[in-house]
Design brief:
The chain is an alpha+beta fold. The chain has one domain. Helices cover 49% and strands 33% of the residues. A six-stranded mixed beta sheet has the order 1-2-5-6-3-4. The longest helix has 60 residues.
């Protein structure tokens, strides 16, 4: 009878150990699955943020309130200095519209002289600034543009600096 009792105990311990190993393997599988899902979700989030950044820069690139125009023809990647300076009044009158269009970002146009002798920044115009109060990071994009001064009929090189608040 003692032999049968020992065999039963041994069989019960074997079953318990097999179940523990089984649950340990299942737990490891679940942990790796969750880690993989987190990394995939992070990659998707970065991809979405990049798309949002491109979208906002494209909206600003084709922004008729600021673009140069000659005889009704709009020039892409060209910004009119008079329109840039007057945009502040337009923005104040339609703040809700522009906040919904651009979201939390800062856009500024900087005049730049790339010649080796000068290589410096000139005038700076802040087009739009809607900073998020509790932002965790800022993503920046620079885009080359032409700056047109219709008063002096001059074109210079410029850079649009976009700062997107997250």
């Amino acid at each position: 009878m003692k032999k049968d009792n020992r065999k039963g105990q041994l069989h019960t311990m074997e079953t318990t150990i097999v179940l523990l190993i089984f649950f340990f393997i299942i737990s490891l599988g679940i942990i790796f699955f969750i880690a993989h899902q987190k990394s995939t979700a992070r990659e998707k989030q970065v991809e979405f943020e990049n798309l949002e950044l491109v979208k906002q820069s494209q909206v600003l690139s084709f922004f008729p309130e600021l673009q140069c125009s000659n005889d009704g023809v709009i020039n892409s990647n060209c910004y009119d200095t008079v329109k840039i300076e007057k945009f502040g009044n337009i923005y104040q009158a339609n703040k809700l519209f522009y906040n919904s269009l651009f979201g939390y970002m800062k856009a500024e146009v900087v005049e730049f002289d790339p010649s080796p002798a000068v290589n410096s920044y000139g005038a700076l115009w802040v087009i739009y600034d809607n900073a998020k109060e509790d932002y965790s990071a800022i993503r920046k994009v620079e885009q080359p543009v032409v700056i047109y001064d219709p008063i002096n009929n001059e074109k210079t090189f410029g850079i649009i600096n976009l700062s997107i608040y997250k």
